[in-house]
Amino acid sequence: MPLSLHIGTDRADPRVGDAAFRLNVKEVPPSTFINSDYRVRITLADMIYSGIFERFPKLIVGAVEFELSWMPVFLQRLDYTYTDRPARGAEWMRFKDRSKLPSDFFRSNIFVSFQEDPYGLRLRDIFGTDGLCWGSDYPHTESTYPRSMEILARNLAILSPEEIEKVVNGNVRRIYGF
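Request: output the structure for the sequence above.
Response:
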């Protein structure tokens, strides 16, 4: 069963105490929504660098509703940090399989869902379509409903029919075993 890191479960560091778990959405500034992928990037980098996907190669983790456009820079920074930065203590883990890069673990073990990212799909040659899943997020306020079909058609127009099938159906079926 895949694990999901949902955009709505973002919380502060629990070491700050109970306040980390009290989130009043009405008090969240727009800058938090704009940078919502920040904490999921930290979490995914920690998971990848810890070697968890090397130890548990069948583990699948989803970054759900974080859109896509952040991924190319994230993948580049994952690999650059791993290959071109000096190790700084035990947390700078080196994989047992030296032929693997952090981005390889991302591509094989992490899926990402999106609702309405007109730019991210243009960059799919960097991260592929095997881990992309579309969702409308109905009935929430940020849902694409009632314009889901219009938005989906516009955003997926650049994909091949095979890619569209994966993104709107096949990947979810495979990931969740439907």
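The chain has a mean pLDDT of 87.
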